Amino acid sequence: MTTVDFGPVVAEWVYGSLPKIIKRDLNLPLTPSSVVSVTGARRAGKTFLLFHTIAKLLENGVPRENILYLDFEHPRLGSLKVEDLDEMLKVFYEISRPKPDSTIHFFLDEIQNVKEYGKWFRRRLNAKYYISGSTSKISSKGIAEEMRGRSVDYVVYPLSFKEFLRFKGVEIGQVETILYREDKRGVILSLLREYFELGGYPGIVLEQERQEKIRILRSYFDSVIVRDFAVEAGSALAEAVVKYLLSNFSGLFSVNRLNNYLRSIGFRVGKEKVLSLLKRGEESYFLFPVEIYMKSERSRQVNLKKLYIIDTGYPTALGYEFSLARAMENMVAIELKRREREIFYWKEYGKSEGQEVDFVVSKNFSAEELIQVSYSADGIREREMKALKKAEKETGARESTLLTWDTYGKQDRVRLVPIWYWLLT
Predict the structure, then answer these.
(1) What CATH number does residue 90 fall under?
(2) Buried (b) or exposed (e) across 174-197, using 16+ Cβ within 10 A?
(3) Edge-to-edge strand order for the sheet containing 356-363?
């Protein structure tokens, strides 16, 4: 890599301007003492979170000359080596000419594309660094060894429902008042259905036409296949695996079932290859397996997992029949992840058709709350209440919540909460 390669890319930033930014609810520190590591799924909004942070720095008086944003997926920056990062600095100082009396801030997007980047950071921690990537490998658990203990993590998910409404230009005011306003609640429920059906990717939410939303979501799907899964297998196998995952979201899942499915459609792959693809899906924040609530590690591993996906717009874009109930459950799982809660599911022991509870919210494996998600046109189902009562006795959870489409109240000590209300509060 030469200075000629970096020159146009750095100049593009130095002489360009920030795009229009709609505020998210996640904020990055402006004066971090460690490297700020931003991870999350592709298209979830990591880059715009970096831009929002840059805008805040500029408002606080940091000179534009002292800020560099660089996207390592830029077409001119292919096949980078760690030694090339010194060339990046050289070009930045030549073109931008940062002010010596102000701190320098580097925003390095998709840094995982630079092999052995950690070696460079070990020698270059005299500035403020924000790094991002579409893989958990740059989180504090998976980050380069040289940077462990020197970074703090922030995970970006697609828009929450509160952010979704903000991107739509909808002012909600006091959430409690919506409970008593039929007209306003009708608007919220209509938008909630759209949120569940087409998902929360910022670029999709801002697009006006439904068909264009579908087209863009399909392009996102293709990007996931090529960049996140096909590196572990051929594109045909990767596509088969991802489509299987999308068709089975919010359901019980096993590696053996997936392996048998792949064999039934002509793919002769071993279990290790399937496990490798699933691991890749987790690392890229595309899928989130949830284990059964059991104290024994071995018991959690041998039982089926429940599978959730990063965005419920994908199944819609690929033509699968839309299930509001499954989309509701999936969005609750993602919201609990966003709130950094420890979650499991509960199932009656020893019964293949036993009662289930969607989520056990716990802390250090100690159950705190049970959450059941229900979309039922004929009211609260008795089986859901029975499952909560049974799970309360077995887990010792102090609180039970039944998330409904639009029912509010209390029944047998169980809180009945509209899912829109829960998402907004």
Answers:
(1) 3.40.50.300
(2) eeeebeeeeeebeebeebbeebbb
(3) 342-347, 356-363, 366-373, 399-404, 414-418, 409-411
Bin 61: left if φ > 0, else alpha if -120 < ψ < 50, else beta.
Answer: left
Kindly tell me the burial class for residue 364, based on how many C-beta atoms sit within 10 Å of its own C-beta (0-12, 13-18, 19 or more). exposed
Query: What pTM value is reported for the model?
Result: 0.92
> Taking Cα atoms as reference points, which of 368, 365, 347, 342 lies closest to residue 357?
347
Domain range enclosing 57: 3-156
Q: Please, are residues 70 and 50 in contact by the beta-carbon 8 Å criterion? A: no
Q: Is 199 helix (H, G, I), strand (E, B) or coil?
A: coil
Using only the alpha carbons of the chain, give its radius of gyration. 23
What is the DSSP track for 208-272? Answer: --HHHHHHHHHHHHHHHIIIIITTTS-HHHHHHHHHHHHHTTTEEE-HHHHHHHHHHTT----HH
| pLDDT, tens digit, 9 for 90 and up, residues 25-48 | 999 999 998 889 999 999 999 999
Tokens 């950071």 identify what position?
121
Mean pLDDT of the chain: 90
Alpha-carbon gap, residue 164 to 158, rounded angstroms: 9
Q: How far is CA 70 from CA 7, 11, 131, 187, in A?
A: 11, 10, 10, 40
Per-residue tokens: 264: 């039934």
Average pLDDT over residues 399-425: 94
Of 127, 156, 185, the domain-final residue: 156
Same domain, 101 and 193: no
3-state secondary structure of 14: helix
What is the count of structural domains for the chain?
2
pLDDT, one tens digit per residue, over 372-381 is 999 875 566 7
Based on the fold, state whether residues 152 and 268 are members of the same structural domain.
Answer: no
State whether 148 and 207 are in the same domain: no
Residue bearing the bigger pLDDT, 202 or 233: 202
Q: What burial class does residue 330 get, using C-beta atoms within 10 Å of its C-beta: 0-12 exposed, 13-18 middle, 19+ buried?
A: buried
- Kindly state the greatest CA–CA separation across the chain: 70
Backbone region of residue 243 per phi and psi (left: phi > 0; alpha: psi in -120 to 50; beta: other values): alpha
Cα–Cα distance for residue pair 253/396, rounded to 1 Å: 26
Three-state secondary structure of 286-343: CEEEECECCCCHHHHHHCCEEEEECCCHHHHHCCCCCCHHHHHHHHHHHHHHHCCCEE
User: What's the rounded Cα separation, in Å, for the pair 267 and 243?
Assistant: 14
